Amino acid sequence: MGAWLIFSGYTGKAQTVNPPDVTSNSRCGVGSVVLLAVGSPAGGTYHWYTVATEGTAIAGATTATFTTPDLDATTTYYVSYVSGGRESARTAVTATINPTPNLSITPSENLISSYIFAGNANDVSGKNNNGTLHGTINGGPSLAPDRYGNPDNAYTFDGEDDYISTATQFNNPGEFSLSIWFNTTVAGGQLIGFHSPRTGQSQDWDRLVYMNNDGQLIFGVYPADKTLTLSTTDAYNDGKWHHLVATLSAKNGTKLYLDGTLQAQDVTADAAQPFAGYWRIGYGTLDYWPDAPTNYYYQGLLDDINIYYTELTPNQIADLNGAGADPVCAGNTLAFKANTIPGASYTWAGPNGFTSNLQNPIIPDATTAASGTYTLTVQNSSGCTSQTLVEAIVKSLPLATFTVSPTEMNTGENSVLTFSGTQEENAEYNWGFDGGTIVSGSGAGPYQITWNTPGKKNITLSIISNGCTSAMQTRLITVYGNYIWTGNTSTDWSNPANWAPNGVPGANDNVIISNTYDNAPVTHLPVITSNVAVKDFIINSGRLNLNGKTLTISGVVDFNGGQVTNGNLTISCARVTFKGTSFTAVLNVICDNIYFNGSVFQNTTTITKQGAATVDNDSEGGSVFNGPTTIINNTDSRMRLGTAIGDMFAGNVTFTNQASGTLEISYNSASDFRGDISVNSNSVVTFGNGTGMAVISGQNDQTISKSGGTPVLFNRLTVNKISGKMLLQTPITIGNELILTQGIIISSTANPLIFSAGSTVTGAKHRSYVEGPVKRFGSGAFTFPVGKNNFYRPIGINPNGGVSGAFTAEYFPVSSATAGNHNSKEATINHLSNCEYWQLDRVAGLAATPVTLSWDTNSCGVDVPADLVVAHWNGSKWINTGGRSIIGNNSAGTVTSAEALTVFSPFTLGSSSVNNPLPVQLLKFTAVMQAGKVVINWQTASEKDNKGFEVQHSADGVTFTKVAFVEGAGTSFDIKDYQVSDYSPGSGITYYRLLQEDYTGKISYSKIISVKHTTETKLVLVTPNPVVNKAVISMQLPLSKTCTIKLVDVSGRTVYSQSITSGRLVLDMSGYAKGVYFISLQEGSNLFYRGKLVKE
């Protein structure tokens, strides 16, 4: 049609109506296109047509802009312009539909059903397995745009009753693959599954893909008696299109892919439940399946569902997804791949700001941080784009971490290897033990490994898990040797040929020494030629000569026999046992655990229990310590000695307890102590704590001392010293029992002997008592075993009513006038003892007690015991406390106060009559040999009616004769000094005493003193003394002399007399009464020997 001429009514001129100018347009994918036209002259209208000629204009399309309906292909439209009633010719205008790039390629092999939902649910695979829509609320699923925006190319499901089922029944699908695209924001529902029957409640259901309430996808089968499922870690109800593939095969089990990437696999799930059924899409029964959602109906979009009866390969799955990335292990290259569209451009974006314009980019040395969702945008030559999601997985490497303990060991010992990482199912653990032997363990372990050869050992571990291999981890341990002394070549310790295996043991090697090897005697025993160190050490027999050098031992030590001589032995160990070995070496031992089970220590020995791995140590005993010894417990555990056999400490010994543990000596046995004992401790050290006994038996003075704040406790103590004294330089406490056999304990005010409540003392006598203060705690009767100057002079108490208290007592063999003025006394006291007094003090409690005093022949004369009273100095005068329970005779006895006393201080014997003379207060009485004569001196503090003194001497201490008489001072309260010389003292020992006579003729005697002067030879040795049955008297007399040997009892009666020359005499004492006897040896009046013999 040409242009129209239009004539103007008022001008008569014609106007031309030209065909309009047009603008074509285009779009990507299905949809409407906007077309534009411009006509002239202005003011006209437009007609839009679908044909070039003829036809009818599109209704309502009269403007310059025309929007086409949705188009799925390029379409040409036509437009004309109408003005002044005239219509121009039509102009063609094109609406171009450019295709959206589709990366997805659908494999056709073994494809059973394919539902692309292009306006319906028909199967496009050619197998005619069409789907049927179900749903009453909305009439079933509704058509919706697909992932490319194409309308009516997907289905939306309402989550209430919409679903699709296949019309065709399938019989027991074996191997299969399910491919499905989905997009939802609502978690829950089945995406696809196999059910029977086709609709309604299922009777059988299996091969299920569903979403749980958390948005995670689950795929599972029910092969026999349990469900086997796989699931994604992440949730996918994110409102994006995702591609899921689920496969099953007998070879590879089940696999679950998301967005082209394998998420999980179970090789054991290699079959499904056999039954005939139908595939359902969007709904199916999920009863009893793990993590099933609350709603079995799916709500969201589904598209492009393909069912295969084979396992799709990873490449086929990538084709279906359009792009993909195979899972890789950390450290490997993560490679992305996309299907090819000619002329298209590719843009990738992903985690950590990743971008790439390559079709198939890579990430070298990928870490787990590269895992995640990548978006691929593809633009074709028409400028149209589409997006595909790719889920990339970079798997972490398993960690082959493990520990080794110990890292240093000896051959034959075990090292424990423990995997310290997270054990993963189906992981493969590849260990390397460098020649070691497995004692126990498998798989991940733990293992116990032993090595038979020394050296450095490399332990390795690598792990293969989930297709990834860990970095190999290595641990180094050192295996040391066990060396046995053979002595094949020489005595030289440092000669390798003397050891089995050949070599020289080092600081971490173990050593065994015996006097036999391989059932044959060892010819050469070891001698150390330089300082050496070893770990564990055993000596069973033979001898180790340290040769003046130092051997250091750091491990476990067993001294089972033999000798260690001539040097220094330093031990720092976990345990040491001393059993049957003799040491002349100097020992310095610090060990966790120490056992003394019978060894001899000849030199300085220091033993310290110290360390973190200590336990209670109970030693049998039987050890002998001849050198200075120090034993220390510096732990919180027990150290106990002498549990079965007594030990003997011949030298000085120090015991120290430095921590909260206990140190218990002589626990269940009697141990001898012959030197000084020192306790340096702030914690308890106890002697004789079980049924044992500490026996003080040295022949010289022995001191007991301490430093630290804890008292020294002798639970059971025996003093059995034939000579010397036991000197207390610290207070000691008797916890249970004190036995005084022989020997004197010297105490002091600062260092008393203390008896705890309930403890006892037995055996006190003239040759065995306590010289100094004795303190007693508790209730009940108690006799203080006190004395001085070789006299046992006890004092007793018996608190009323069992009331507890604490008392201290001490005996003083001097005139009681030194404690209180004799002129200040009650009238009922005639006179007081000038020989002795006792200090008795109550130091704790309120106990009242009667007081019992004793007397014997040393008490200045007792002739009427009935007149004796207990006199008490109250600070201003002597008080008569009465006398009752008088037991004994003139020679010895006790007297008890008539009442219980509550005030204490000095006590002495008093007499209520002129009897019991006790007349002179003698301060000093001595005899000294000077130039062949004996000078006798004495001193009095006071005298009353004293006529004088007769000085007497005796060769045997029994029969005395007069030397001289010296007049006394009568009555005097001044100190008086007297002196007499004896010009015929005789030889050997001469005994002296004073006979004091008052004006009434009453006499009393002083104590006996002696002077020893030169004799021709030492004559007599008497053993044993004391004696029970027979005593052996060995005599060496002057040449050609015959002497008389006499045995005299304490009353002066000769009970045995025999002439004898030099030789040996056995004296049978079995028929004699117990007591003290005086044995003398003399020729005529010449006394050669005099001594005491005690019969027990």
Automatic annotation (TrEMBL):
Residues 153-329 form the Laminin G domain. PROSITE patterns: LAM_G_DOMAIN. Pfam families: Ig_7 (PF19081), Laminin_G_3 (PF13385), Por_Secre_tail (PF18962). Gene3D superfamilies: 2.60.120.200, Immunoglobulins (2.60.40.10). GO terms for biological process: carbohydrate metabolic process. It comes from the Bacteria. One of its GO terms (molecular function) is hydrolase activity, hydrolyzing O-glycosyl compounds. This is T9SS type A sorting domain-containing protein. It comes from Adhaeribacter swui. The lineage of its organism: Bacteria, Pseudomonadati, Bacteroidota, Cytophagia, Cytophagales.
